[in-house]
Design a protein that fits this description.
With 86 residues, this protein is α+β, with helices and mostly antiparallel strands. 37% of the residues lie in helices and 12% in strands. The protein has helices at residues 22-33, 44-53, 60-69; strands spanning 41-43, 73-75, 81-84.
């Protein structure tokens, strides 16, 4: 079994599909998390714009939610401020 995220990426590093398997979803989300800096605070618009740059299937709300639920990003109660978790 191929455990690399490369099979979900185009040559330009963009994620092209949202996988069905949980383990593959984790690979993709882990990859996308690397696009966020640890020492930067992001507002929701910045998170969305960054995610739009790194995927082609146009579902940044799904990806933003997955990053939060899988504990790669933290957010305040209103969802307006995000930070990359270590």
């Amino acid at each position: 079994m191929n455990q690399t995220v490369d099979r979900f990426l185009k040559d330009n590093g963009k994620v092209t599909t949202w996988p069905k398997k949980q383990s593959d979803k984790e690979l993709v989300i882990s990859y996308l998390a690397t696009k966020f800096d640890f020492d930067h605070t992001y507002n929701e618009t910045e998170v969305n714009e960054l995610l739009k740059q790194w995927h082609t299937f146009q579902d940044w709300p799904l990806l933003r939610r997955e990053l939060f639920e899988r504990k790669y990003l933290d957010r305040n109660l209103s969802g307006s401020i995000y930070r990359r978790l270590k």
